[in-house]
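Weekly structure sync, notes
Attendees: PL (lead), two postdocs, one rotation student
Agenda item 3: pending single-chain targets
PL asked that the sequence for the first pending target be pasted directly into the notes so everyone works from the same version. It is reproduced below exactly as submitted, 361 residues in total.
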Amino acid sequence: MKASSSPFSMRSSAVAVDLARLWAPDNLRRAAPGVALCAAIAAVAFIADTRSLLRFGAVWVPPLILTLVIGMALQPLSARPILKPGLEFAGRTLLRVGVALFGARLTFGQLIDDGAMPILVALAAVACTIAFGAWAARFFGLSRDFGLLTGCATGVCGAAAAMAASAVLPKHENSDRDLAFTVMGVNFLSTVVMVLYPPLQQALGYSLFEMGVFLGGAIHDVAQVAGAGQTMGDKVLSDAIITKLLRVAFLLPAIAGIAWWVSKSGGPVSDARPAPPIFLFGFLALATLNSMGVVPPAVQAAATQISSFLIITAIAALGMKTSLLALARIGMGPVLLLISETVFIGLLVIGLIYGLRALGL
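Predicted structure, written out during the meeting:
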């Protein structure tokens, strides 16, 4: 008697069919105009950044913010049929490829070189901030899923984590607006703390190593961690980047955990079960290959650059699908939620460093 197929194998087959259809030549031709426009917006932001046009004294505007603003300015074009397939393709498919390639930033060896403190701080920062976001969202009258979105962005790695989390959260009419707000809000707050945190070393009584762990554990986005670390010297910069990359390494379990939490929430099956986060296995595979030393440095650098460009291209698509009017109506609740998450992760990391120091870790 022939055994029946398991639900997992049936879903895997369905995913394979969907992937084949997604990358079919006809679908790519339909998507080309919209993808080209989003890529052009991303290219403008990248060129402006490389020519230092986004630096105003000590203030740096991340290119993804410029991308999002340009995209939202072009939002009326999103209704054109010739652009719609490409906007969807850029906002979903290219995003997933970009997140998968994000794994090229990691090697498991470099993540354990500094001992237990960075690992424990990164793990606690990610897990506790996501859980806090889900709880605090209800306190501010918002949905748990919105708290998971903002908590993941704050706790893991900013915009990239927000985009990855949105891929496994149930969709609703304000999904694009919520994601756009999260991307902008997290980057703004990340830039604020990039300036505020380095001068706190003397008041906190931290060593250079502990200061690096603090910056890498408490600042949201990789770019702002690097910016803060650079102001304090190579030692702090190195330890900050390693701690931050540990948080990035927890992107896979964080997104998988959010997907599981949502699927077990008891909501309608059609809304509560996200597609399997297949792109995260690409992230893990690339990080593993990179750790084994089989990825040449040139390929690693190229994958990192392509990852950044694809994620920003996806943000351009997000901007074009987001109404400025809808964003303006989001209210104070989400703003207070993001601020509270930023304060929470900062205080949490400060307390953890003191505690781990007392334990000799």
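Discussion points:
- Residues 17 and 179 are 28 Å apart (CA to CA).
- Residues 1-18, 267-276 have pLDDT under 50 and may be disordered.
Action: rotation student to compare against the earlier draft before next sync.
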